[in-house]
Amino acid sequence: MADFPNLSRRGFLNRSAAVGGLLVVPGLLSACSKTDAGSTDGEGALEKLRKQGFVRVAYANEAPYGYMEGKELKGEAPTLHREIFKALGVDELRPTLSEWDGLIPGLQAGKYDVVSAGMAITPERCANALFSDPEFISPTAMMVKKGNPKKITDLASAKAAGAVIGVMSGAVEDSYAKGAGISGNKIKTLQKPQDGADAVKGGRVDAFLLTGISLRWLAKTNPDTEVTEAFVPELEGAKQFSPGGAVFRKGNEDLRDSFNRELKKITADRSRYVGLLTEYGFGATEIPPATLKTADLCKG
């Protein structure tokens, strides 16, 4: 099993997370027309993938988003992408491991066709690559002791109960807690996800605040805990969805659009989505709203 991810690199926990390495390769993008999707002989990218029988995907070995277990590529993104590309007539995913900051540069350089790593959709990244429609959102949840002794269900109930809340250092959850009116002396900073689980089990905090996806994964190795139902926090009246998606080279709009048509069939089917991804901690609360558009997310 892959190690628990360094989630702050994903852009979910820290809104100012670095997007270092998003370098445009000179001349690469200009070599491709909008419709040929990266092929220089005029052949569409999807047709090319169908003929060769596989699609090259990059992953960063971050569970539960995209990771290798034994010889099998697993996780949220590869599971969805395998389903989508099979529907498009491409039966095999061929994985390439990449450092997180090298994912988009490698895509631009033609090392692979798709980033299959659950990457957060941000304006900075949109400037360098094409994102699919959102594959998921990352609502927030809380890890509590088994039995939830303070009956905490969200930040409002945590405030009412006088609960001590744990957050990761530099993480956006700190601003969620403060935005909900929880005072600074009731917020404890922790360094790693496991530190949060340990603080809950040891009684140093009443709840550990993080994405529901991450906490459900963490709970697999911390059986004396449980995770509350996920909820979408607000900051200054704006809902904080933290969506992620597949990434394509600029010029591959046709491939991206074909991918989106199949993705929509899955996200519109609650039971199918949950059935595919429940193994990785994704449930109905992670299904992106139909009104959440990548074009708007790319504008910031």
Automatic annotation (TrEMBL):
Keywords from the named record: Signal
Keyword Signal belongs to the record: yes
Provenance organism: Streptomyces salyersiae
Keyword Signal: yes
Positions of the Solute-binding protein family 3/N-terminal domain: 54-277
Ranges that cross the membrane: none
PANTHER family: ARGININE-BINDING EXTRACELLULAR PROTEIN ARTP (PTHR35936:SF17), MEMBRANE-BOUND LYTIC MUREIN TRANSGLYCOSYLASE F (PTHR35936)
The protein, known as: Ectoine/hydroxyectoine ABC transporter substrate-binding protein EhuB
Pfam families, sorted: SBP_bac_3 (PF00497)
